[in-house]
Write the structure tokens for this entry.
Amino acid sequence: MPRPLWAGAISFGLVTIPVKIVSATEDHDVHFHRVHLADMGRVRTRKVCELDGEVVPQDESGKGYEIAKDQTVPVTDEELEKMPLPTAKAIEIAAFVDADTIDPVRISDSYYLAADGQVAAKPYTLLRKALERSSKVAVAKFAWHGRERLGLLRIREGAIVLHSMKWPDEVRDPQELAPKVVEVGEEEIEQALQLADRMTIENLSGFRAEYREVLEDIIAAKADGKPLPSPDEGGERKSGEVVDLMAALNASVKAAKESRGEDHGEEATVHEMRPAKRTGGRTAPAKKRTASSKTAAAKKTTARSTSAAKKRAGTKTAAKKRSAS
């Protein structure tokens, strides 16, 4: 079991559930050291006092809040732990809400809550079953790392998960980032929906960190003195290149079908609508133009087939005469 990051209790009305916070995720990223390239020595970051220029030991370093330009108030870890808050050592459930009302942009880090001892087993199970049957999530407040946080409790495979959340005033308004109003045709929307349908999957278990894999290959090659892996050529489109939206959507749908091994048959493609040409002040109906085009094409095909058959017949007759002679 991973090392607990925090120990306290869930406060659920009059129910208290002793729990430990355990990280729900693992860091598999490749981490680098900062080194001196001349001799590969490690470059260390030193904590130096700006007044006397001396390196400050860890036991002499603490927190301070600047209330004025020349006035800083020290705050110790012990003082933070003894703050007069009900959330100092408890995850206090404040409300229950429907899960689909939570904006995903507010969710931050995730942690598992492990029952701390046998005494916590029954109330832990009680809260878990209550959340499962109600299809709701619990909104809670808790204090951690020097500040009060907003949290979300939900169930994942029988365990209670704590999601750290952003406070409402910590989420920026996206309105200023939205593009100007543009017209999008129904055909484009339908094609985009078709592409989304073709790309729908059951779960995300098949995804892997390709960047990390390639980075590990590079590190292994350098360690063994081998040539570095060469980048794929032609795999990326040049940045800023303008593409035809409908052509890109059609090509994307086709690629999605091919990746699933589907038979294409007669693929439906979407084309940009253009005004029809006018003849004598009237517009020819689209169906008639399509039918006449198909008839003309069929006549041309029949004529080519007849001509080819006559040529083959003449060739066979000549061959028989030469054979008889």
The radius of gyration is 35 Å. Residues 183 and 189 are 11 Å apart (CA to CA).
